[in-house]
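Design a sequence for this backbone.
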């Protein structure tokens, strides 16, 4: 199995797609909540936190990538064993650093042979092109 690592433009496009999906989910949840009277603010906050903080780690750990990754033909895998997905805890840890570092994390992609961003290095993950049939 020859591994082709995902390039920066594919990863940025995937991130953009995922951002639009999260915004749409939050908007949809807001519209649904608007149908009810007196929804406490803490309910809105919890929904926002759940969509924002769990979308990426859940999809990465369960499916090996988010909807954006899938649309771009890339997947997140274990750096030591690329046949395996990363577990939820590693995906969450990876996501936290991805959010904390922002675009700075992506600056390292062209600086190493596995094209790992800082959050990939921290999460011991790689992002690879889906296998072509």
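Sequence:
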């Amino acid at each position: 199995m020859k591994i082709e690592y995902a390039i920066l433009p594919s990863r940025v496009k995937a991130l953009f797609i995922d951002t639009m999906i999260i915004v749409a989910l939050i908007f949809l949840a807001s519209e649904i909540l608007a149908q009810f009277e007196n929804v406490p603010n803490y309910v809105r906050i919890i929904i926002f936190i759940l969509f924002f903080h769990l979308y990426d780690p859940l999809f990465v750990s369960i499916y090996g990538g988010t909807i954006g990754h899938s649309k771009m033909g890339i997947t997140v895998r274990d750096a030591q064993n690329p046949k395996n997905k990363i577990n939820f805890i590693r995906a969450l840890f990876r996501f936290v650093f991805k959010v904390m570092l922002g675009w700075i994390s992506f600056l390292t992609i062209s600086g190493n042979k596995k094209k790992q961003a800082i959050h990939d290095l921290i999460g011991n993950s790689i992002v690879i092109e889906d296998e072509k049939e």
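The CA atoms of residues 4 and 85 lie 16 Å apart.
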